[in-house]
Structure formats: structure tokens, C-alpha cells
Amino acid sequence: MKTDLLFQIEAWVIALVLFILMIIATLIGKKIGNKIRLNNKSEKNLTETSGLIGLLFFLLAFTFGMSGSRYDSRRTIIVEEANDIGTAILRSDLYPDTERTLFRKDFKEYVEARIQYYEVGPDVKGILKADSLSQAISARLWKRAIDLSKNPANLAATQQMIPALNTMIDVTTSRLAGERAKVPESILIMLFLLALITAFYSGYSEGRKGKIDWLVQTGFCLLVSLVILFTYDLDRPRRGFVNLDGPNQTIIELRKNFN
Residue 57 domain-assigned? Predict the structure, then answer.
């Protein structure tokens, strides 16, 4: 599982650095604006940054929407996986007691592997290890179901179990793909740069006017940084403030099937 450079940095660190850089960019813009104003005393200042600010907030909303959509998709897939696993577990009851016991033993191991898959957090090696383990167990379940399907006495059970296992296995691929699908790093970098450019021109505009409202400027920089903080956070649910602990609880609750 490949991770981008920005993904390896905590979201709050990125937001804090952006806030500081925006303040610095505002100061630089203000000094340049003041210098130009003093050198051109008779020139009226018509500098406006409303268009640039509008573009920035449009891109912020667009990117935040992308992150939110991906977060919702990941949450939905986890609940779907829990339902698929639960269905397959129940269908093991269609087999004779001996086979049912073996199925449930493997299903118990599979549930623990899927719980571990989430609980390892952002550890890439841990994620891949847990995913490989769950694939190995699911392959064992599939082989058992196929072998039992050769017995005509298991026809009804086979017709129910094979589709359930197939769905259960497929959803793990969807879940892994959902975690890999993130907002492109290039878009986030562009947003970062646009925020700095907007801060610079905002300070420049105020410098041309001869005064600057630092309460407004600081509030603007803080607001942009917070939006970017939660945009990054939504796109990395294994770390940060926003997580998937709630949806993952639906898989943890599958342990009740084995009590």
C-alpha cells in the first residue's frame, strides 16, 4: 500500500505550518504594499483580492467535499462487510454439526483478522499483514465450501453459502481500494499554495491602503487552516480526530456469534 508524503505527516502539523506560513506571507505582502504606497503617494489603490479569496474558498469546498465523500464510502463499506460476514456465519448453520463447527472456527479467526485489520491503525505493514491473514482464512473457507458442494446432500447449503462467501471476500477488496482512494496529493499541494498566495495578496492589498486589520487577517488564516486540517483528517480515517471506530464496532460485535 503506497502512502504519499503528506500522508506521513500529522494533519494538525500541516495545518499549523500552513497557518504560520500564511501569517508570514501576509506580513511580506503588507511590507511590499506599504513600500509601493509610499513610492506612489498620488496613486489610488484599487487592489482587490475578493476574486482570489472566492477561488480559494471554492477549491476548499470542493476538496472538503471529495474527502467527505470518500469518508462516507469507507464507513458504508465497513458496515456492508459486517453484514456480509454475519450472513456467511449464519449460513454455516445449514451444514451438519461437524462441518458447522469447522466453519464457525474459521469464521471466528476471520472476524479477529478483520478486527485486527482496522486496529493496527496507520501501520502499513500491519494492514497488509492482517489483510493477507484474512485472505488466507477466506481461502480456507472457500475450499471447504467447494469440497462440500460435491456432496449432493449439501446442495441447499451450498446454494446459500457460496454466494455469501463470494460477497464476503469481494467486499474486502472494495474496502482496501476505498482506503487507497484519497484526494490526489497534487490537489492538496495546489490548495496549500493558493492559500499562501491569497494571504500574500491580502496583505499586499491592505498595505497599499496603509492599514491592516490583523484580527480579520488572523481569523482568515485560521479559518483556512482549520478547513484544510479537517479536509486532511477526513481523508485519513486511521489517524487524527475523525476515525471509523463507530462503523468498525459493527465488526467487533460479530464476536457475539461465537459466545
Answer: yes
